[in-house]
Amino acid sequence: MSVAGLPKNEANVLREHEGAVLAARFNGDGNYCLSCGKDRTIRLWNPHCGIHIKTYKSHGREVRDVHVTPNLRVMLNILAELRPSFCVRNKVRGQLDNSKLCSCGGDRQVFYWDVSTGRVIRKFRGHDSEVNAVKFNEYASVVVSGGYDCSLRAWDCRSHSTEPIQIIDTF
């Protein structure tokens, strides 16, 4: 990787968290970012302007990871480049519009959020220890989480169930 295209100057400093920031993630097109941390919050930012947009609060302990649903436009452009016939033959399903996010943390739970209202849609429980990582699948219909209980769990965002649809714990 060449360093020629990397920024040389600091553009903005995003300061609102009270304590350590544990993760930061851009959305698919890079216009917004999410951060989470020891203060039990998730924060939505416009990093280009340095503006704090919204705070999400519901975790009982630190928030260790956060992920936002993919952007449909970006996904379709990538799919069209890789497999032009895919977009014609298949309907892309799920929340592919940056409208949902998932988070996890020290409270052993995975939270599924509505970005615009800031409300928790569902809390997925089942890990026996802190949860360290979350990620949506490419259709934003499933969230996968990984925890200190040495397990991966898959959660169905389309159903109303709070039970995992799959557990992988044989490592």
Features:
171 residues, 40% strand, 4-stranded antiparallel β-sheet, mainly beta, single chain, 2 helices, globular, 12 strands
Q: How would you describe the overall organization of this protein?
A:
- With 171 residues, this protein is mostly beta strands.
- Helices cover 10% and strands 40% of the residues.
- It has two helices and twelve strands.
- It has helices spanning 72-82, 84-89; strands at residues 21-26, 33-37, 41-46, 51-57, 63-68, 100-105, 109-114, 120-125, 131-136, 142-147, 152-156, 166-168.
- The strands form three sheets. It has a four-stranded antiparallel sheet, with no helix packed on it.
- It starts with 20 loop residues before the first strand and ends with a strand.
- The model is unreliable at 86-95 (pLDDT under 50).
Give a count of the beta strands, DSSP E runs of length 2 or more: 12
What does the overall shape look like?
A: globular
Q: What is the structural class?
A: mainly beta
Beta-strand residue percentage: 35-45%
Query: Which regions are unreliable across 5 or more consecutive residues at pLDDT < 50?
Result: 86-95
Concise summary:
With 171 residues, the chain is mainly β. 10% of the residues lie in helices and 40% in strands. Mean pLDDT is 84; it is low at 86-95.
